Amino acid sequence: MTSLWPRIEPILAKVQKPARYIGCEDGALEPVHAPHKVAWLLVYPDAYEIGLPNQGLQILYEILNERPDAVAERSYAPWTDMEAELRSRGVPLFSVDTHRAAGDFDLIAFNLSAELVYTNVLNCIDLAGVPVRAVDRGPEHPLIAAGGHCTFNPEPLADFVDLFVIGDGEEAVSDITEALAQWKAGGRTAGSRQRVLRDLARVPGVYVPSMYDVAYDGERLVSVTPRFADVPERVEKRTIADLNEWPYPKNQLVPLTEVVHDRLNVEIFRGCTRGCRFCQAGMITRPVRERSSEQVRSMVSSGLRRTGYDEVSLTSLSSADYSGIEDVVGGIINDPMCQGSVGVSLPSLRVDAYTVGIATEIAKVRRTGLTFAPEGGTWRMRQVINKLIREEDLYGAAESAFSQGWQRMKLYFLIGLPTETDEDVLGIAELARRCAAIGRKHSGRVTVSASVGGFVPKPQTPFQWFGQATAPNLRAKVNLLKDAVRRDRGVTLKWHDPQATLAEGLASRGDRRMGAVIEDVWRNGGVFQEWSEHFDIRLWEAAMERHGLSIDSYVHRHRTEDEVLPWDHISAGLHKDFLWQDWQDALAAAGVEDCRWTPCYDCGACTGFGIEHVVASPVPPAGGSQGTGQDLSAGGSVPVQLLATKPALIT
Amino acid sequence: MKVRFRFAKLGKVRFTSHRDLARMWERAFRRVALPLAYTQGFSPRPRVSFGLALPTGAESVAEYLDVELAPGTSADVGALPGRLSPVLPTGIDVLAAAALDVGAVSLQHEVTSCSWLVETSGLSPDELQERVAAALAAGTLVIDRERKGRRSAQDVRPGILACDVDGTTLSAELATQPRALRPSELLVALGGGLEEVRVRRTSQWMQRDGARQEPIRLPSDATGAPHVVRRAS
């Protein structure tokens, strides 16, 4: 139970970026372990620079360490050079806070934000000295837990993870700690592992896969049923009702070395009701729960003062929708404490001129590029996916941005969407081209980049029944776009590897049989699969073949209405018939409005939990382009010339 | 107003890079609300200069940083170390600060040599003693050096200004001009079989009026003070 630091220190001179492994961040804790304290190791199964900023992990780190009966430390997937050194010297996975062996913790809990990290989860369990399969573990081993968005289909990892937490973790971690404290007090005797897992299976929001039997009929999944009467048939997600009761992280970690999102992050609301049908995050985090503007302001100002950061990101799934966003942004920028030099960033900008107005307010301080996500190339496509951005919204945003001196505009799109035609794909090029043309009226140096990603249908969304596009099909669409923009000045095209999209599809909607494939890929050296330098589709294809599973059936097949889906026993609160109806509406290219300000569709998220959307303002934000009474049947296109002659259109 | 700081980098934080260190300092200045002068241009940068980069993984009790405060800003220079040390990571301690003439020569140009303590492994004290004696007696010591991806054979003997042995620890003064000789290169020059265990820069030296002196002289006991040599890990 001592620090491994003396054994780690000599390795650090031999690996890239040794600061990944030292901890020492501002805000880091060195908790004191004790027999009566449940020890959690929170692991982000990707490189330190990706995992450190994760807010979910930091929130739980603080909540657990505030408890008198718990300690929590952190770990990240060691990069391949570090892994080789650790294995050759017999040093296990360790925490970065006190450099304690992972096997010394009571619980190792993984954050699952992306499916391609699954093989890293297995690697970390193995590096911890714990058998990778749950069934092989004994009383001496820590429990293996997982939380995060990917747990809304836990089945691909069901063989490796003892318990999953579905939904918000703030309250669930306390319930789990209390159950584990008893287990620990009882001495973790033989057989006690099964008993504590049985207890945990009754905790709301906790799913213990070993307590369920799975039945198949040939290729088809028939049922996932509890083995005991006291184990729930369906696990409902946890939802915290009031974000204001959870002002975390209070001491955001400030890393000593370069990481992504290296700035202060303040979550301004959770949940989203725009209803974009491809978006798993928007579906599984309902209802909307806003943080009060007073709390946002105080978290921003205390955070900036404590960290020394000069940039704050107001995070959510659609930050411009926050009630009173202008006041909050203005308050930060004009705060004398900020010395007029604090940048504010709003991820997931809505596409309209109004939003650009806010962005420009922010840019009085510092001007970065603007990013928008129209996702679909034509109005028809955007109705299918329910991302109801009109072309005039986008061109208005472009006009507004470029006229106010912005030089770079980034546009995100998906390809391989349901009902997509070549016309829809070419629409992407058309939008980018027109935005660039608007920009050229203001500056010769304007660039517009269109980033296209292959669409992966996700569980618990209306598109969960959709058969994903094949890699050759996605490649053909990319080629179509490459040809279309070849001659366009100021337009650049970026795309994701269609083969990585395929692997993500396997991991996203797989059932429990996919576990053997993930283990196979890992055993054959497939780690860091979300990194292009390590990704190898052949590992996945070979593993599928070895286990007699069909890629076509798991990825490209359209599911039927009566089919049992692998995640049907996990509930995000959404009624399956609501999702099916929304899927049918999608196929009919019919959009739906944002339910924050319009009547309820009874998706189930609010009623099921007895809570409602917590929105500070009863009226939608000014200039909103969805749910504000606009005529959704008229998307239409506005020729760019019209914008040039009628600037009054642009506010 | 320009200020020169001397600081230590000890313990775990020594595994951060030179660039990481620059960001730590920028955040520290913002935390104590000490505004810095910024460069002009599209993306302004604070006017700070670190002098000779310390290799990642090496410790030091003799790092320097020159900063230019924002126009119109004045500060009690003597109080700055006490204000800044608490807002810097554990292991970074500000040892001293001094006001600098606006026209002062940059550290990079003025520093001519550095003193290092290099704990080694791989050779016995006697073997190490012999290697050092042989190296110092040699007229030339040609090693393969790499710079900006290009390798070339160079004589590094003129860069070894002094080298003593105490057990398996070397105490060496290495020239920084025309090109800085690194402790790792000293080990190569001493022949194979030597590995760095721990490296610490103890002084940077400049020539002024014919005498060797440090950019900021510390009170004689400062570098020996317990809080300075305390291992942060």
Would you kindly provide a brief summary of this structure?
The complex is a heterodimer of chains A (651) and B (233). Chain A is of the alpha/beta class and 651 residues long.
Can you put this structure into words, describing what you see?
The complex is a heterodimer of chains A (651) and B (233). Chain A is α/β, with parallel strands linked by helices and 651 residues long. Chain A has 2 domains: 5-236, Response regulator (Rossmann fold); 263-513 and 549-609, Alpha-Beta Horseshoe (pyruvate-formate lyase- activating enzyme). Chain A contains 22 helices and 19 strands. Chain A has a 6-stranded mixed sheet with strand order 2-1-3-4-5-6. In chain A, α5 packs across α17 (514-523). The longest helix of chain A has 19 residues, at 422-440. Chain A is globular, with a radius of gyration of 25 Å. The model of chain A is unreliable at 623-651 (pLDDT under 50). By secondary structure, chain B is α+β, with helices and mostly antiparallel strands. Chain B folds into 2 domains: 2-108, Pseudouridine synthase I, catalytic domain, N-terminal subdomain (Alpha-Beta Plaits, 2-Layer Sandwich), CATH 3.30.70.580; 110-213, Alpha-Beta Plaits, CATH 3.30.70. In chain B, 20% of the residues lie in helices and 36% in strands. Chain B is built from 6 helices and 11 strands. Chain B has helices at 18-31, 80-84, 107-110, 125-137, 183-189, 226-229, and strands at residues 2-9, 48-49, 59-68, 92-100, 111-121, 142-147, 150-155, 160-166, 169-175, 195-208, 211-213. In chain B, strands 1, 2, 3, 4, 5, 8, 9, 10 and 11 form a 9-stranded mixed sheet that branches. The radius of gyration of chain B is 19 Å and the shape is elongated. The two termini of chain B are 35 Å apart. The relative contact order of chain B is 0.21. Residues 221-233 of chain B have low confidence and may be disordered. The interface between A and B is medium-sized, with 23 and 26 residues.
